[in-house]
Amino acid sequence: MSLFRPWRIAISLSLASLAGCAQAPGQAPAQGPAEAPPAFVYQLIARLESEATTNPPGSIWSYNYHGQVVYYVPPTCCDVPSELYDTEGKLICAPDGGLTGRGDGKCADFFAVRTEERRIWTDNR
Against a cut of 0.85, is the pTM above it? Predict the structure, then answer.
């Protein structure tokens, strides 16, 4: 019985540390040494939180795409296209989703060449 006690302690400590990772609505979580997201990302979070919850939950990811940082909002349902933004908040393209599931075709190589994936936000409602 005492053999299992260290595992219980390790599991308890792991769960306690994960509980400290919860984020407040409308705030992007700290992601290590990377820079904070630009202001438009916080506006995007506010927009997504003002909408009905989705399944899968809404989220925002950053990537390096062709040498620039971009922000990706995955599709949340059915025929909804994804959104890919530059650092100024300009919509670049829809990499996937939409009627065909293949987005708008303007950045068809996004999934093949993107790097440096980083989760910025996930809707926890």
Answer: no
| Within a domain: 84 | yes
The model's pLDDT over 10-66, given as tens digits with 9 standing for 90+, comes to 444 443 333 334 444 444 444 444 678 999 999 999 999 999 999 999 999 999 999
Query: 67 is in which domain, residue-wise?
Result: 34-122
Q: What is the CA radius of gyration of the chain?
A: 18
Tokens of 114: 């993107």
Tell me how far apart the 2 most distant CA atoms of the chain are, in Å.
60
Q: Looking at 10-100, which runs of residues are DSSP E strands?
A: 59-65, 68-73, 83-85, 91-93
Give whole-number Cα distances, 123 to 40, 46, 60, 79, 82, in Å: 17, 10, 9, 20, 16
Number of domains, the chain: 1
Unique residue bearing structure tokens 């989705």: 54
Beta strand extents in the chain (DSSP E only): 59-65, 68-73, 83-85, 91-93, 115-122
